[in-house]
Write a structure and sequence with these properties.
By secondary structure, this protein is α/β, with parallel strands linked by helices. Helix content is 38%, strand content 20%. The protein has five helices and five strands; from the N terminus they run βααββββααα. It starts with 14 loop residues before the first strand and ends with a helix. The mean pLDDT is 91.
Length: 147
């Protein structure tokens, strides 16, 4: 009997730095597609992320947005994972401006754990600046705790 290696929460391929401002919908679609391409979710999850945003903004303060799917989309999640986009110039998120967008897919209750880890890392105002000005390796190190 063999076990499939558990997917990492974040891979460097799922980090895009220096993104240009775009519409909120396009940004959610892009970060959601990264989750699809990374094998974390099925395609319908992207629509569920847009659905979530219509009912409840995922803006968290400190220049951070954490788009994720509605509860009904849980079955579209194959593995817990995140995808990251940074916007040095900022991008509109409703009436706010965000510099970091982290798309989240969490199996079961894992999304709460993921949210708390990200929130913890993002508490300090300088964390946003460090992520936004960082390259892929820096963002990976900060969010994964790995080199």
């Amino acid at each position: 009997m063999f076990f499939k290696k558990k997917k990492e929460l974040l891979y460097k391929e799922n980090i895009k730095v220096g993104c240009k401002p775009d519409t909120q919908e396009n940004v959610i679609r892009a970060v959601g597609q990264m989750l699809v391409d990374g094998g974390y979710v099925d395609q319908p999850y992207v629509e569920a992320m847009l659905e979530r945003e219509k009912s409840f903004s995922t803006f968290m303060g400190n220049g951070l947005a954490l788009p994720h799917g509605v509860e009904a989309a849980k079955k579209q999640i194959k593995a817990s994972g995140i995808a990251v986009m940074t916007f040095p110039e900022g991008t509109q998120w409703g009436s706010e401006t965000v510099k970091i967008v982290i798309g989240i897919a969490g199996v079961g209750e894992e999304h709460l754990q993921i949210l708390s880890v990200i929130a913890d890392k993002m508490l300090a105002p300088e964390a946003t600046e460090e992520l936004v000005s960082g390259d892929v390796n820096n963002v990976y190190r900060i969010l994964s705790g790995k080199e």
